Amino acid sequence: EVQLVESGGGLAQAGGSLRLSCTFTTFTSGDYTIGWFRQAPGKEREGVAAISSGDETTYYAASVKGRFAISRDSANNAVTLQMDDLKPEDTAVYYCAGTTRITSVQAMGVIALITGWYDHWGRGTQVTVSS
After folding, report:
1. How far, in whole angstroms, is CA 19 from its chain's centroid?
2. 3-62 per-position pLDDT tens digit
3. Residue 87: per-residue pLDDT
4. What are the DSSP calls for the chain, one per residue?
5. Which pLDDT score, from 0 to 100, does residue 75 have?
């Protein structure tokens, strides 16, 4: 069973930055994709960004494109989400998730941000942005 653990959440002011990290145990079946999702109170969980291990392509939700950056540290089995120019509407619990059913984010596009494609989930980390 793949296990994922998020870290780096906290409190930031609007316009500020936070960096989230997701560390995970090894996927045994080749290429995989790691996605970041978030869930605000009273709202459904939504995809934020994803990166695939093989071709290292990325995909972002329109709401964060240009402000967030996802990257992979293959040596340490980690994926980071750099969040800049934060807004109060970014406040949510952020989850990382993994799947082997998506091997190229570029090929799958927006599908890479759909929760149902992911099989392994972390417990989440709170991000709060004050105005």
Report:
1. 11
2. 999 999 999 999 999 999 999 998 877 899 999 999 999 999 999 999 999 899 999 999
3. 98
4. ---EEEE--EEEETT--EEEEEEEPPPSSS--EEEEEEE-TTS--EEEEEEETTT--EEE-TTTBTTEEEEEEGGGTEEEEEE-S--GGG-EEEEEEEESS-S-HHHHGGGGG-GGG--EE---EEEEEE-
5. 86
